[in-house]
Each structure stands twice: as C-alpha cells, then as structure tokens.
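Dear colleagues,

For the upcoming journal club I promised to circulate an example of a predicted protein-ligand complex. I picked one with BIS(adenosine)-5'-pentaphosphate because it came up in last month's discussion. The inputs are reproduced below in full, followed by the predicted structure.
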Amino acid sequence: MRAVLVGPPGAGKGTQAQILAEELSIPKVSTGDIFRANVSGGTELGKKAKEFMDRGDLVPDEVTNAMVKDRLAQDDAAGGFLLDGFPRNVPQAETLKGMLADLGTRLDVVLELRVDEEEVVKRLSGRRSCPECGRVYHVEYDAPREAGKCDNEGAELYQREDDREETIRHRLKVYRDQTAPLVEFYSGEGLLATIAATGPVAEVTARAKAAIEEKR
Ligand code: AP5
Ligand code: ZN
C-alpha cells in the first residue's frame, strides 16, 4: 500500500498516520517529524528548515523533495508507505509521481481528511507532543493519563513552536493557497478518497480504513 494523507494542519494526519501505519504494517513517513528531528538535532537540514517552519511557511521544494527521495529509497519503504505531510503542493506531487515511476510503482490512494478551521485552531492550541516517541496528545480531547507526561515512557510533553494562534492562522492560509489544489490534482488522477475527520479518533480511523479499502 502506497498512500498519502492530505489535510489542513491539525486535521489529525499525524494521529491517524501512526495508527494506520501500524495496522497496515507499513512505515509512516512524516516530513514534519523528520524536519523537527533535524531541527532538534541541529543538522544542516534542520538549519535550512527551521526559519520556514517557525513562520509556518513551506520549506523550499528542493530541500523537501531530496529528503523524501532519500527516505523512500530506504529498504523498509520498498513494500509500501504512508506519507504524512508530503506532497504539500502540486510541484511536489509531480515530483513524487516521477520518483515512484522511476521505482516502477505508483500511489494507491490519497486520503483527504476534512475538518473546519475553527476546529483546527482548537485542536492545535491544545496539542502536546512527546519528544521521545513522537506520540501526539490533546489536553482535552486525547489527554495523557498523567498531565504533561507521555503514557509510553513518562517523558515531559512539549508544545510545538508553530502552534501559536497567529502562526496557526498563517499555516491555514498556506494550506488554502498551496496545498488545497492537490485535492483537485489527485481527484483528476482517480486517487482521491475524502472523509470527515471529526468525531472520536477511533471513528476517524474506521472511516479512513474503509475509504482506503475501497481504493485498494
Ligand atoms: P507538519 O508537521 O506536517 O504540520 P501540519 O501539516 O501543519 O500538520 P500538523 O502536524 O499540525 O497536524 P496533523 O494533521 O498531523 O494533526 P495531529 O494528528 O497532530 O509540518 C510542519 C511544518 O514542516 C510545515 O509548516 C512546513 O514548514 C514543514 N513541512 C512539512 N512537510 C512539508 C512539505 N512537504 N513541504 C514543505 N514544508 C513542509 O492532531 C492535531 C491535534 O488534534 C492533536 O492534539 C491531536 O491529539 C488532536 N486530534 C487528532 N484527531 C482528533 C480528533 N478526531 N478529535 C479531536 N482531536 C483530535
Ligand atoms: Zn512518548
């Protein structure tokens, strides 16, 4: 299964990608997570990405495309993958198509997660993430057992730099201007499946699985 998750910031792409990748036994490839790991590790890639991420802008395509190409060339992605956060604009989608064609393959499905902008602001302002295992929580909708600590290993949860309200609003604009055109692009390719990403996490997962099965 080669799948892509598309949706505005806070739609639940990371949350669903983690669950779906495990259930489908494929690696989750999250460009946002890879960038954040590079920023906290102080790598060259992290230095290139940081200023764009802090503003809520897209990292330049040549940086992002090269990173994804390397990641998809790793052994564990040979049998399939779930992309979370890539592609993010039509040129990246064209690049991905070319990369997969070079590997003799193509995407199976692009799952669009739909949620309205007010819900996004509520979700992102309450988001907390684990620096150790990457699990994402919400202070109200998906709280850890002990406030501020990860259920898995007890690490102190943190709030993302780009989850301040004005940066969230800017990321939403970037989504509308640059990413939303992908919906039409993939619909034209016959790959698009759209689900409502509201309601409990488990219900969204069930909808996602049904939509993916239908496209298989
Ligand atoms: P990225 O990390 O991809 O951020 P994003 O797209 O803005 O998405 P988020 O991670 O904010 O949200 P999500 O949809 O994963 O939601 P989550 O599951 O966490 O990108 C960050 C930056 O990196 C970009 O701005 C850009 O600079 C750069 N970048 C990344 N990819 C790039 C690319 N391809 N090209 C260029 N630049 C790129 O959920 C959010 C919250 O809601 C959580 O608290 C969660 O617990 C809660 N929640 C989830 N589901 C539900 C539910 N059903 N009900 C209630 N709450 C829920
Ligand atoms: Zn953790």
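Two points we might discuss: Residues 112 and 170 are 20 Å apart (CA to CA). Residues 2-115+176-215 form a domain with the Rossmann fold fold (CATH 3.40.50.300).

See you all on Thursday,
B. R.
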